[in-house]
Amino acid sequence: MKMKDLKKKINREVLNNGFDILGFTKIHIDQEIKKNYSEFLKNNYHGEMKWLERHYEKKINPRLIWSDVRSVLVVGQNYAPYENPLKYNRERSKANISVYARNHDYHKIMQEKLSKIQTWLKNELKIESKIFVDSSPILEKYFAEKANLGWQGKHTNLVSKKFGSWLFLAEIFLPINIEDKFEEQGTCGTCKKCLDVCPTNAFLGNNKIDARKCISYLTIEYKGPIPMTLRKKMGNKVYGCDDCLSVCPWNKFSTETIEEKLNSNNSLNNLDFFLNFDKEKFDSFFLKSPVKRIGWERFLRNIIIASGNSENTDLVDYIYPHLKNQNPIIRGACIWSLFQLLCVKEKDKLRKKLLLEEKNKYVLYELRMNS
To answer: Residue 135 pLDDT more than 90?
Structure first.
């Protein structure tokens, strides 16, 4: 079969399975990319994501993932919201969850579609393949750019003229040589809105980020106490952050996703709604959501910090019970949050009570720092 005809067949099958865009590229990775990624790790900008260090060699050599791979088929799934998520930052008594996580887990949705394509490749074209959705150390944004799906914006995420910053990416490794001619899809020009809008100043410059200051990292990957200097800057965000994506001017060309399970129209819940949760309710409520991955205690930590930023004193009564949580990180977050909301007299009363009852050094440290 001619390469042109093979591409057409695969293209048609990918789009018929609900993906919005695709492209082919070779597995070669530029030396500059390898160097930049190595420097990112050496500077510890990845924080606690130590798997990035362990998988470095695989990241820069896809054949260490699958020795037969010769090309990468990159597919994109549009998940654009119907309105700009920046508006949710103003709803301070709401738990602001990133738009991608307000519905079903995109990993499972895309995995199901990819599995169908994989079966089709084997049965119809006799081509073996490997499929990936955030499941292996792959430089997916790099390959997506090389496959003409868009370009890596200054916020380090992929930007598309058609879909803006709202594309989920996945890969199919193929054991055949097949690629599209690389054509530059666009640039960010002099625009740096994504860099300027970041609440925590996590960007070090164009295409460079210190993940340790990124709200998405802090609320999802980071397990410890949220750094005190960054807590106020998190606002009402409890899972991820869309600010740098939302402000991108290319989003004006995007259209709302037609994938019902990725539709983010679900309204935000109040913070007190989640403060009344326990682990069982958390697991049940987020059963089909990617939020479940971080676990109840990490999510509760985020909810409590957001409550401290809410300026809503009605939340005080909902926070107090969590001072008895066995996890000192939760108790520490409660102290910070309550000291943002209580009057001076109430703070003094709480301080005296905790000095008599609390034994954990970290929690007492939080108490001293917030006195």
So the answer is: no
Say how far apart CA 167 and CA 159 lie, in whole Å: 8
**Distance between CA atoms of 249 and 348, rounded to whole angstroms?**
48
First vs last C-alpha separation in the chain = 74
User: pTM of the entire structure?
Assistant: 0.94
Q: Which of the listed residues 219, 250, 268 is the one where a domain comes to its end?
A: 268
> pLDDT class for 34, splitting at 50, 70, 90?
confident
Is 283 annotated in the active site?
no
324 and 257 housed in the same domain: no
Domain boundary residue among 268, 303, 333? 268
pLDDT for residue 46: 80
256 and 308 co-located in one domain = no
Contact 123, 307 (CB under 8 A): no
Give me the helices (H) in 74-161, please: 106-125, 140-146
The 8-class DSSP code of residue 275 comes to H
Give 220's contacts (C-beta < 8 A, 6+ positions apart).
Answer: 239, 240, 293, 294
From the centroid of its chain, how far is CA 210?
14
Task: Please give the backbone phi and psi of residue 23, each rounded to the nearest 5 degrees, phi first.
Answer: -165, 160
Q: Are residues 25 and 129 in the same domain?
A: yes
250 and 285 inside one domain = no
**Strand bridging mode 130-132 / 96-97:** unpaired
Confidence tier at 215 by pLDDT (50, 70, 90): very high
Structural domain span for residue 322: 270-371
Residue with tokens 């700009």: 84
Are 173 and 286 found together in one domain?
no
Domains of the chain: total: 2
3 state DSSP class of 120: helix
Strands 237-239 and 96-97: parallel
Return the CA Rg of the chain: 23
One domain for residues 127 and 14: yes
Q: Residues 134, 242, 272, 278: which is the catalytic one?
A: 134
Q: In the predicted model, what is the mean pLDDT of residues 309-315?
A: 98
162 and 62 share one domain: yes
